What we know:
- The structure holds 2 protein chains of 2 kinds.
- Chain A is of the alpha+beta class.
- Chain A is built from 5 helices and 9 strands.
- Chain B is globular and about 45 Å long.
Amino acid sequence: MIQKVGGAAFKTKNIHEIKNAQKLIIPGVGSFDEGMKNLSQLGMIDLLKEMIEKKESPVLGICLGMQLLCHTSEEGTGCGLGLVPANVKKLKNELEGTFKVPHMGWNTIEVIRKNRLFDSDLSEKRFYFVHSYYVEPESDDICSAKAYHGLDFCAAFEHKNIYGVQFHPEKSHRFGMSLIRNFVDLK
Amino acid sequence: MLKHRVIPTLLIKEGGLVKTKQFKNPRYIGDPVNAIRIFNEKEVDELVVLDIYASKRGFSPDFELVSEFASECFMPITYGGGIKNLDDATRLFEIGIEKICLQTMCFENLNLVKDMVQKFGSQSIVASVDARKTILGEYRLFKSSKMTVVENLSIEKHLENLLAAEVGEIIFNCVHKDGTLSGPDLNILNKISDKVTIPLVAIGGVSSLKDIKDTIDAGADAVAAGAFFVYHGKRNAVLITYPEYKELEDLFST
C-alpha cells in the first residue's frame, strides 16, 4: 500500500536498518505482553524510544502497535513503550446494547480535532477494526478521532510526532490508503 | 456504527479456485488471485479463503499462494486450511493474513487453539463450525477434513468449548446448504445465535440480498457466501459480483 501511494517501505527486524529509516510504522497482531517481549528480545525498545523521542521521527502505530506506544494495558502485566500519555483498557462484554467483543468489522469514525492523518473533507470515513482492547488517553486533547462500539473510544491519536490508529488502514481500501498517503507525505 | 460484514468466501483446491455443492464435487471456476483482485476493486468488506484440500490430505498451507492473496488485498483476509501448529500460524500472520480459521484443531487439540489465542490474541483466531442436518431433521457437527458427522459431541457443547477457549469469531456453515443457492437455514441460526457471545459469521445457502438480511435478523453478525458471489444465472455461469456499498447500507437500514 505504501508503494502504491508513492512511498518506499521495508519490513525489518534489523536494528541498523531501523536507525536509517525516516519514518516508522509499528504494526501489530498479537497480545500486549507478547508484543513487548518480542520488541525487547530484538533489542528494539531503547532504539525506538531514541528514534521517536530524541530524533522525533514520525511513527505510526497500528492496532496493537498503537497500544504498545502507551504506558500500560489491561491485557498484560508489563509496561508499554510509554511514549504517549495513555493506557489500554479492555472492551467489556457489558457494553450498552448488543455489542460484541472483539469489535470486529467496518465502523465509521468521527474526526474530532484538526489533525494531519485524516483528510479534512466531511465524507463518511470507514475503517476496519479488529480489537478487544482500546486506548484511553490521559487527557482528551491527543485523541484525534473517535469511534463508537457500545462506548465512545479513541480510534486515533496524535501526540507530537507520534500517531496511532486502532483500526487497520492497510486493510481499509481507499479510506486507509488516503491515511497512509498522508503519513508518507508528512514532512 | 458498526456495519454488518458481507464476506465472499473462496475455496481453493490445488491452487485453483473451486466451488462445491454440499461440500462435494469441487468445480474449477478460475484463478483465485484474479478473483481476489476483482473483489478488492469492488471494495468488499472482507474475504475468507479456505483451502479445502490441505487438511484432507494433511498438507501445510500453500504459503506462496497465500502470500500472493495477501499482497492483492487491501481488506482483511481470513485463511483456513492445513494449519497444524504455531509455526504455520506465525508464517501466515507474517505474510499479512489478519485471521486464521481453524476447524480440525478445534476437535483434536483444543489446548493448541488456546495457545494460539494466547500468542496471537483472540481477534486473530476464528473457529470454523460446520453443521449438517440429518434425514431426521437433527443438526450434527460435521468434520470436513474427514467428511464425516461427529457423533459424540453436540453443536451446543462444541460452541461452548470454543467460547471457553476464547476464540474471537465463529464461522458457522450449514453443509446441507453449501452451494445450493436455496436460502439460509434460519432455524439453526435462531437456535445458536443467542449462545454465541462473539461475532458470528453465517454461511450457506445465500442467494439474494434478502437472504443476507434474513441471516442478520436471525442473529448473525456477518454473512458470508460463496456461490452467490461467483455464480450468475440459472446455469451457474461464473461471474464475480458484489453488491454496491449503498445497496448494503439500504438493506441493513430497513
